[in-house]
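Need tokens for this chain, all 282 residues.
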Amino acid sequence: MRFHPAATELSQRYEVPGFSLRWDVWGDAPGPPLVLLHGYTGSVHDFALHIEALASTRRVFAIEHRGHGRSSGSGDPSTYTIDHLVDDTVAWVRDVVAADGQPIDLLGHSMGGRIAMRFALTRRDLLRSLILMDTTAWAFGEEHAEWRQVAVAFLRSIEPGQVPPRTPRSAEDDLIEAAVPQGWIDEKWMIRDQMDPMAQRALGIQLFENHLDRVDHQLGDIPCPTTVIAGEFDEPYVSHGRRLAEAIPGGRFVRIDGAYHSPQLTHGVEWLAAVEAHLARR
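Here are the structure tokens for all 282 residues:
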């Protein structure tokens, strides 16, 4: 897999009850490591095009959530909750990334951002700074009720053992295809088709319907410098992103013009500049 950064001898396993999670590390520079958390139905591959640049001046760690990417699945929807993913991430960072006690810079995309916020509130002693990317701490509003009902009905139709269904084509897909190599796209779908469909079903329902992981009432307790990044056209995440930056002490908002939900793919130069500016500021 040419573009998958995990196609190296560095790929390792971290065991949690019932799952084997795959993780990777790049770079050998001293100093605080950067940890990348991918989003719902994603994988480490989502950051592949930037690993080399990010790892040139720091160690970069990334893990694939249970049921995603190369990590194992269970086929049991009850084993897929945001709580489980937060616990997995906290344990892995504690035991592997920050085993020497050095705090981390943590970047979370979409669902990964929700995990990152919970991490910040759970283990602030392990956190140096936070980057939240196209994510939210709030439930979707009534203006999104019809969309959510359609999405949840679609998710409830997913059956065990089937190839995880793909979401409908969006305006962002055209931008991605124009910005990234075809090989990257081919690998994306190969990896995506390997995820546990029960992870897609259970986590999607929680994200779009139940909102059990909301932390909006605790944002003032996030203790570290935070940059919130969102694409200009990624509603409601861009408006929620502004709210996040206002609610978190030391928060800062960066809008990437022309982008949607994955600016690291469609506007890689601007995205990388925003990440590096955050790390330099900190």
